[in-house]
Amino acid sequence: MSGPKGFANGDELIAELAAIVGAGNCLSSQSDTAPYASDGRGLFTGSVAAVVKPATTAEVSAVVSACAHAGCGVVPHGGNTGLCGGTAPGPDGRDVVVSLERMNKVRLVDPANDTMTVDAGMILQNVQAAAAEADRYFPLSLNAEGSCQIGGNIATNAGGNAVLRYGNTRELILGIEAVLPDGSVFSDLRGLRKNNSGYDLKQLFIGSEGTLGIVTGATLRLFPARRQIETALLALASLDDVIALYLDAREHAQEFLTAFELTPRIGLTMAMQHVPGVADPFAEPHPYYVLLELSSSQTRVGLGDLLVDLLERNLEAGRIADGVVAGSLGDAQDFWRIREGCVEAQRIAGPSYKHDVSVPISAIPGFIESTKVTLELAYPSAAVVAFGHVGDGNIHFNVCAADMDRAEFAAAQHAIEEIVFDAVMARGGSFSAEHGIGLLKRDVLLRYTTPVGIDLMRAIKLAVDPAGSLNPGKVLHAPPAVPERQMEHATQ
Ligand SMILES: Cc1cc2nc3c(=O)[nH]c(=O)nc-3n(C[C@H](O)[C@H](O)[C@H](O)COP(=O)(O)OP(=O)(O)OC[C@H]3O[C@@H](n4cnc5c(N)ncnc54)[C@H](O)[C@@H]3O)c2cc1C
């Protein structure tokens, strides 16, 4: 165990942290800490003083308290699947990474209350499985569910594939336990559905990306287990048809409509090129594909008939060009594989700029079409892949380098970003619908948020974390005190 570079009392701090979590759960050598020095996409790499892996809330509290006394930063680390650099430590070797991976247990299942209380380090897939074991359904679902943690989902207010029916993570959380920057513990895991006693403090921690507290536990809202699922993959000629189909499905399937996911032709082509097992189920290519899912916890409702009725009506109306209905779970998985393969293929195909935006649903066709034209005129060798959660108005508007010269593509980043975000904001949208801010989008947050909004965010951060020690520099640029901290380090 070697002491951190960043500050004089580093060896003492490491010894203190090791005493709290056990020597085997306190890493400080460069080789041991290296996997925790970068965010999951490898966009940002910092320098770690130590990585600690507490097993209980009391240990997290003691770790954070020790760090507060030592004057170092604390970076919460979940599954490291976040897409905005939120887990990257700072550059000066003064941040302690707190990994929640050992806090991975179900604390309590309460079927009568339809709630489950879990440790924050539980992998999302294990949370879903624990709910299923209790004959319940926890609906948060995203492609990273095999490695992201529920604490990370809460910290980023994750969205995913079932928001249309069940809402974002925020809607799924009834209680939070979190360690504050001074080590004190806020705990309200009562799982109440009604509670108007003062400010709703749990909301502070949901979506705040580890800048206000380390989430250590949560009480989750459960739903009845799904007894019927019907999935169809539909081919459409235009985005206007996509929206018309969505409105019709929403009107007629109502609460049974659980997913409405868009993949453009280029996304399917890329997936077939790069991802094994992805195939085009249609005889001819089509401009757009929609994965439509209906589900119900009841067996009395004939979901199959409802789907057939929906598809026949929209075929007759000319909105659907072609379609296939899943006859088995395997078919449904193949359809989802196309949607997921679209994402995976872009990662394999080369660099891309990812814009995770939302606009009002009615504005989706105009936004995608006109922004695509603007970008194609400016950068004819790049390729736009616009896909995602249409039912939530959330489009992943990605611009891939494709045949564009890599240096030119790198130089064009800000110009591309401006074209996309200006188009979004002009339509009353959001430049960050799901993935958050982290380090990546701090300047964009400043550009598109009102001064009153930014001042309010700064005031909250200052009130909860006056030393600025929790996930320093994430979401909001660090206040002037932190550059001073770096200067102090530079002279040591
Ligand atoms: C293939 C893929 C698909 C994805 N699909 C979606 C999607 O559909 N919808 C969506 O919203 N996101 C999606 N994401 C993004 C990502 O999976 C989510 O943001 C996820 O919620 C992050 O969880 P994590 O445990 O990996 O968090 P991390 O990446 O470890 O951390 C993310 C942020 O939260 C903080 N944090 C982590 N744990 C805690 C904690 N216990 N307490 C306080 N702060 C904490 C970190 O400091 C960091 O700022 C996807 C990512 C990938 C790679």
How is this fold's topology laid out?
Elements: H1 10-21, E1 26-27, H2 30-33, E2 48-52, H3 57-70, E3 73-77, E4 95-99, E5 106-110, E6 115-119, H4 124-133, E7 136-137, H5 150-156, H6 163-166, H7 169-172, E8 173-179, E9 185-188, H8 202-205, E10 214-221, E11 223-224, E12 228-236, H9 239-253, E13 257-264, H10 265-274, E14 288-296, H11 303-316, E15 322-325, H12 329-349, E16 352-353, E17 356-358, H13 364-378, E18 383-389, E19 394-400, H14 406-411, H15 413-426, H16 442-448, H17 451-464, H18 481-490
Parallel strand pairs: 2-4, 3-4
Antiparallel strand pairs: 1-2, 5-6, 6-10, 7-11, 8-9, 8-10, 12-14, 12-15, 13-14, 13-18, 16-19, 17-19, 18-19
Helix pairs in contact: 1-3, 9-11, 10-12, 13-15
The structure holds flavin-adenine dinucleotide.
